[in-house]
Specification:
heterodimer, A: 381 residues, FAD/NAD(P)-binding domain, Enolase-like, domain 1, five-stranded parallel β-sheet, five-stranded antiparallel β-sheet, 28% helix, B: 105 residues, mainly beta, globular
Amino acid sequence: MPSVHIVGGGVAGFTLARELVNKGYSGSIKISDPEGLPYDRPPLSKSLQREHFVPLSWFEEHGVGLVQESVTELSVPTEPDDWVVLATGTTPNKLQVPGTEYARSLHSGEDAVFLSSMLEDGMFGQRVLIIGAGLVGAEFAATAKMLGAQVTLVSSSSAPLSKVLGTDMATALHAEHSRRGITSMTGAVTELGPTHAMVSGRRIDAEIIVAAIGVTAETTLAADMGLEINDGIVVDESLRTTSQRQVLAIGDAARMVQRPRAVHWEAAMEDAAIAAATIMGTEATAHSVPWFWSDRHDSHVETVGDFGKASRTISRLNRRGQLQVLFGLDESGSLIAASMVDGGLMSKAVKRLIARGVTPSIEELRDPLVGPRDLGRQDQT
Amino acid sequence: MSYQVGPAEQISRGDALLVPASDSGASEDIAIFHAADGNFYALQDECPHEIASLSDGWVEGCEVECPLHASTFDLKSGKVQCLPATDDARTYKVAVVDGNLELDI
């Protein structure tokens, strides 16, 4: 009987199982994950909650095997109908300083539940030190502040995330932390203790220390299987690993040949759809324009496209003169990216504009009275 | 029971209208969509995933994309097409009678 063994139950692994079920795959499907029932990761840093995609009964109902296990050894399938899919995700980076073990990460459901109980059961006003002001660090800082903690946020830059949000948006959003009562500082961490850190020569005391300094693709199992690794498990357009045709890799752990590794929730979900098409021999849809969101301090932040290639930016300000949307244009003047705060339908409009290769005029991009529907549908009217 | 929403022409194609429960007497807010096929469809307004209003979503073809986290729903069946939502949206019957929208609540 044909079979698919999925290693990892994050959004990529779970979505693949669901796609296969929805498409009527006739073989057996199994997900292995040491954390058991699959859950969605974005809510971890946004609300410190473990939100399961579906209840356990879904797996029984659709005959999908769910095994709570850590897979440390796996052989390459020998039958052409058998597939192994690596959806192993990422591992949080650790600070390379003495006492690094005193910093916790916020990466798993267990981390979120632990930090949630520390914050909710602990004394009001307990001190939280967060190292790293990227997506996870910024979201956790906002969440901890909301729960009544005294928060210090250490960043190595005054505009963290400028490569993904554009510099002006990154600067504006980072500045928001101080306005919300978070102690925001720029510096380098040189040492950690159980309840303190040394930051650029200054001692910061805190009951809770969290390091959020990025992630690395989890490739241990793939390496043991002899697969090609280069900043992720290297895969082709169909998500087959370059050396083993019956082994696929999807989500944050995978990297398509000659492309940067996509570490986004939506990209992981699209990977799952492509993998399902590869397994079932059907036509796959290509990846859409990258999009992700972040929630902090009551703001819904979104980015579409890739600011990495932008050579010029156009700002759209709201009536109070605050930056609302930052558009990124490439050297030829084409719209390739946008970041926004509480942008409503703007992300969807820009996504469609980029996909169709349409660039509205600079005046239209700047004008807050030109709504997203007008921008995104201009060629349909 | 049906609720008279008013002229159908108030919703242009690709747009949506929020019908608050307090107006219609229904048990929840309802969104009426004017789809690309020219027909009108109605779904529960609140996204089954998190608090967001589907009437603020992006209507394309016969689907609406939630403004917050981009789950899409089939306007005809209410079926959820992609994560993060996993539950379908409830559907309501809506008809155009003499140019006016009648919502079956």
